[in-house]
Amino acid sequence: xxxxxxxxxxxxLITSAANGPVxxxxxxxxxxxxxxIQLLFRAPMGNPLAFAIGDGYLLSMRRxxxxxxxxxxxxx
Amino acid sequence: xRYIVLAGNPNTGKSTLFNRLTGLRQKTSNLxxxxxxxxxxxxxxxxxxxxxxxxxxxxxxxxxxADEAEVAMVLxxxxxxxxxxxxxxxxxxxxxxxxxxxxxAELGIPMVLALSMMxxxxxxxxxxxxxxxxxxxxxxxxxxxxxxxxxxxxxEAAAAKTTSSWxxxxxxxxxxxxxxxxRNYLAGHELIQPEQRKADTVRRFAFIGKIVxxxxxxxxxxxxxxxxxxxxxxxxxxxxxxxxxxxxxxxFQSVFYLAEAPxxxxxxxxxxxxxxxxxxxxxxxxxxxxxxxxxxGLSGVLVFIPQIALLFLFLSILEDSGYMPRASFIxxxxxxxxxxxxxxxxxxxxxMACAIPSIMAARTIPNVKDxxxxxxxxxxxxxxxxxxxxxxxxxxxxPEDLSIxxxxxxxxxxTAIYLLGAITAIVVAFLASLFIxxxxxxxxxxxxxxYQWPRLANILQGMYQRCKAFVWQAGSIILIISVxxxxxxxxGPGNAMEQAALKAEAHAIQSGMNAGTANxxxxxxxxxxxxxxxxxxxxxxxxxxxxFDWKTGIALITxxxxxxxxxxxxxxxxxxxxxxxxxxxxxxxxxINPASGKPRYGVPFALSLLVFYAFALQCMSTLAVVxxxxxxxxxxxxxxxxxxxxxxxxxxxxxxxxxxxx
Lengths: 76, 662
Hints:
The complex is a heterodimer of chains A (76) and B (662). Chain A is α+β, with helices and mostly antiparallel strands and 76 residues long. Chain A has one domain (3-73): SH3 type barrels (Roll), CATH 2.30.30.90. In chain A, 16% of the residues lie in helices and 38% in strands. A five-stranded antiparallel β-sheet of chain A has the order 4-3-2-1-5. With 662 residues, chain B is an alpha/beta fold. Chain B has three domains: 3-218, Rossmann fold; 234-263 and 306-435, no CATH class; 475-661, no CATH class. In chain B, the strands form three sheets. Chain B has a seven-stranded mixed β-sheet with strand order 2-3-4-1-5-6-8, sandwiched between helices. Chain B has a two-stranded antiparallel sheet with strand order 7-9. Chain B has 29 helices and twelve strands. Chain B is elongated, with a radius of gyration of 29 Å. The interface between A and B is large, with 34 and 42 residues.
């Protein structure tokens, strides 16, 4: 699954990112394999999405961008 | 002189720190603006003056947008390599903030790390060992609080120590070597594939991660941040939009009402000063020049200040508090449909203050097409220079005590004209997006910083500098134009003015006018035959379909370079030949069209001119800044043509329609 498939409030671990410059940018913003990602809220029209990344800083991205991040749900 | 740059991610308190370090010794850019501009100042480092440059907030040396590219460009500048980088990092999110630090550290330029938000980190339960961090990174680390000035002396000591030890260390690379290394590095960037870039990022984060884990002790947070609860409200599917519109509406209403009284004082004060000077000075050329040209012109500039100050006050609060990114977030999807980007909201909202810094703020939009369209439509937003024109025209069109329901009719009309600009901007953006080719990736990867209380000192300093910049910039142009205009309006070819005055006097006696009306009639006849009158008359045929006469024509000509000149021009035109100093509004409202017997500047005229000013691109500075940002005259020329046609067409329709109703 990808980060775009997370439900509201669900947390997951990033496992890998797709190729390309957008994914490289996401990595620079801290979206790396092994980092936790939680969907906090969506914009009024369902897009873009707001995630808490790692230690809990807030990052917004569009659905298409979230689809570049492969995640597995964590068991807590 | 040593050359030092201040670098870091956005939202670190970097700009506040810059203000702290340079105080009032900074070169404010010519244009009133935000942090996107490059600011420079002098910083006293143990008795030596250093040149300090504030780089735009950036997440990586690999540029993803125009302002990030600027960071790389400054560092790789042919002429000068920095002697020192002061890197500002937010202690609450050290890991991500250290990425660009690591990228810059590889350049071999000496660095000092300033840690901000230590108090916030403590609230979050983070205990950072400064000594351990300093040892691991190999640079001096100084906790600072830019808001209170805590740690500034330590930062200065650390910077002085780093630059002097660098100069004496034998194995340090020379500035030439550092520059060569940097160029190679940046040239390499062009060639680096995204995969390589990602791999480098992963490698750097692994290095940073080890350090961060070693130096930070995590305790239970003392307090939950209010950010999550506030976001629930500000990004709510209904309340988010309601609040956005409410905030914007509140700003316009406040700007209109709070500024009203001080504006009145300035106008009355200047009128009194004009009267006093005209009585005290000997009659003649200079008396006329001062009381008829310079004083009304100055009054037209100074009267702006309350509105500009208020508008910038509110916009700074929105920016400083962290609300602006939320406004982008909730509007992104709508903006996309219009061919824009959520990030366009900041330039567009800023465009209501001034298009110039806002067009520069569009640099933060990573996508080339989105950025171009944002630049193209930003001047359609009603800027603060239009506000005095609106205020004057609205007061002509709408009676003071008229209200619709609980709303004041004047406030409503003002809101409507702002909405007209905004809606047109969206429509034009949509049309433009059909014609402009897509380049690069569209995206909305954006940090949502924690909400913060706006810093009063910062806001007041910004307000002061913007007002000062306005008075000096716009003021000098307006003053020159006022004087030239007074000359043009006071003199005419040969003795045409005298003859017109004699003829008018004869006509006045014949038709039995009272003394006051006769005087005004005579003054109007003289003005009509002055150089200014001839100029206005020559364009009258072109603007007559819009309901404008030759006096308005004069104002249109003089306000072509800068629209705020309109009110000043009208003041000057009406001061010529008028003995007592009335306010410009009273003079315009009192003028009767001899042909129809109705007020010359009635409702259809006011509405038509209102719409004209909403759309016309009368601002040389905007054209100049668009040229600079887009790199050619192509876009400013298309912009000028589009907006002029739009203004003419809309004004024509408005005048015809209004004539049916009024």
